[in-house]
Amino acid sequence: MCPRRSMVGFPEWMSPMPELGLTWEDVARTHGRKIYNFAYRLTGNPDDAADLAQDVLIRVKRGLASYQPGSFDGWLWRITRNAFLDDVRRKKRRPTVPLPDEVDRLARASVPAPDHVLAQIRLGSDVQNALLKLPHDFREAVVMCDIVGLSYAEIAGAVGVPVGTIRSRIHRGRGQLREMLS
Amino acid sequence: MSHSGELLSAYLDGELTSAEEVDVVAHLESCTRCQGELGDLHGARAMVRALPILEVPTWVISGAAASTAEMQVRRRPLAWAAAAAAAAFVLVIGFATFVATPPAIDITFSEISDTLRLPASQDGLPAARAVVIARTAGGIAE
Ligand SMILES: [Zn+2]
């Protein structure tokens, strides 16, 4: 599915994992962005998302040695959500509102952003803020579906609940988003 | 006649069995309430899908690559704060439309920096480049 392309700057010892047909750098390259965006939409905070994405990639590096052939996406996203939950427990923090002063800061910029750009910032922030207000289980399911692009079965495998539960969470999450954003 | 309820989200996502889909489609033909709910759900899904995809900061991957199993290496370049601000600005750019496949927009950090007169990267890292990648209906483009 993804073209194989070697990435410069990674030492030889990391590769390859023949049972996967994937090297760690393949995983980092093809999934790093998804993991980061998952974390960003769950936390609303770019620093936390970056730390979390790095934590996940390190866990993947450790885990690939003992990875048993199976659903790679299920395995990867189980690691990712566990890392997120560990992080939440460790920091005991609530998700933060993203970049609260961004609109004001841009409005004061010496070269003002066009009005339509500011309007788009506000819309994007509104959607992110609404996501952060969802119960965690709903937010996780919605983000895995609509940001990461996983199937219901893949989400169920990662979260460890029946597919019907995921279907319900996505539906209720979207319903609540609609209420908040209308 | 019972309404379609949570089958509607699964219908949008192509996650129904063919038998369920036949039932939902038949119901939708005659039920304005479910038609309205389907429109609302579609709108909510479109708003989430229209959120821009942000590029992962390069130090995240290089730091993970450099780490050993026992030690995490975290390095935030000085430019990261400026990059984060730029990324926040870029947040908006992909939000131009609610349709499933907006056009790709590719903006370099220097373009954003120039526009906003943000401080330039202090260590010259090209790492601060922030890119919005167009979403496809199926998720993050590879
Ligand atoms: Zn109905």
Give a brief rundown of this model.
The complex is a heterodimer of chains A (about 180) and B (about 140). Chain A is an all-alpha fold and about 180 residues long.
Layout of helices and strands:
The complex is a heterodimer of chains A (about 180) and B (about 140).
Chain A: H1 24-43, H2 46-64, H3 72-91, H4 102-108, H5 115-133, H6 136-148, H7 152-159, H8 163-181
Helix pairs in contact in A: 1-2, 1-6, 2-3, 3-7, 6-8, 7-8
Chain B: H1 7-12, H2 18-30, H3 32-49, E1 53-54, H4 58-66, H5 80-93, H6 109-116, E2 132-133
Antiparallel strand pairs in B: 1-2
Describe, in plain words, how this protein is organized in 3D.
The complex is a heterodimer of chains A (182) and B (142). By secondary structure, chain A is mainly alpha-helical. Chain A has 8 helices and no strands. Chain A has a domain at 14-99: Rna Polymerase Sigma Factor, Chain: A. Chain A has helices at residues 24-43, 46-64, 72-91, 102-108, 115-133, 136-148, 152-159, 163-181. Chain B is mainly α and 142 residues long. Chain B has 3 domains: 7-49, no CATH class; 68-100; 103-142, no CATH class. The interface between A and B is large, with 70 and 53 residues.
Provide the low-confidence segments of chain A as ranges.
Answer: 1-18, 97-102
Please name the two chains that share the biggest interface, counting residues whose Cβ lies under 8 Å from a Cβ on the partner chain: A-B, 70 and 53 residues
Dominant shape of chain A? globular
What is the annotated CATH architecture of the domain at 14-99 in chain A?
A: Orthogonal Bundle
End-to-end Cα distance of chain B = 43 Å
